[in-house]
Amino acid sequence: MNKNNKELANAIRFLSVDAVQKANSGHPGMPMGMADVVTILFKHFLRFDPKNPNWINRDRFILSAGHGSMLLYSLLYLTGYKSISLEDIKNFRQLDSICAGHPEYHPNSGIETTTGPLGQGISNAVGFALAEEILKKKVGKNIINHKTYVLAGDGCLMEGISHEALSLAGHLKLKNLILLFDNNSISIDGPTSLAVSDDHKKRFNSYGWDFLDINGHNEKEIFKALKKAQNSKKPIAISCKTTIGYGSPNKSGKASAHGSPLGEDEIKLVRKKLKWKYEPFEIPKKILDDWRAIGVTATNKARLHQKNYQKKLSSMGWLGWSLSNNFNNNFPPKNNLIRGPINSAIEKAKLEYLKTLEPMATRKCSEKYLEIVSKISNLIGGSADLAGSNNTKTKNHNIIKPGNFSGNYIHYGVREHAMCGVMNGLALHSGLIPYGGTFLIFSDYCKPSIRLAAMMKQRVIYVFTHDSIGLGEDGPTHQPIEQLAGLRSIPNLNVFRPSDMIETFECWELALENKNTPSVIALTRQKIDPVRKQKSSNNLSSTGAYEILRTNDKIKLTILSSGSETCLACEISHKLAIENIYSKVISMPCLELFDQQTIDYRSKILNETDLVVSVEASETSFWRKYTGERGLNFGIDSFGKSAPYKDIYNNFELNSESIIKKIKKEI
Question: Which pTM does this prediction carry?
Answer without folding.
Answer: 0.96
